[in-house]
Design brief:
The protein is 0% helix and 29% strand. The chain has 157 residues and is mostly beta strands.
Amino acid sequence: MRLIAVSLMNLVALAGLASPAHAALAPADAPGDARVQPRRADASAAPAQPAALTLYVSATCPEGGPARVGWTGATPSKPVILIYSAEFGSFRVPDGSPCEGTILGLGVKLLRVIFHGNSSPGGSRILQAHTGPGACGNYLQLLDLTTCELSSVVLIE
């Protein structure tokens, strides 16, 4: 399974962050599959740091179908945005927007916010959608609106 996001195209423009929570994605009822490896505590180690913001996707490419997008390491119960683009780049979040000045790893071609909502109390979330084939080969990135931390850019394949 791979990620596809074409039916996500009736989305919110990046500068319009005050839009509805999401357009085409709905939270999954399934428990998180958070891909976090347990680590043994070491009493001499420094205090634990929050987990890095990690975005993962699975979808049906190239034909389209079910898609699943999830993340871990976001600020618990606080807002994030999931951003879609057709290219890598260095788009700067506009002045007056949350996290203004943050440089995304995405370019402007088809740049859209496809989800604007809160992470779970654990800082994770899973979204599900049904998408078409046109999103394959495009990219997603997650932005935590509390810390302005970015996930890595993820290819939809």
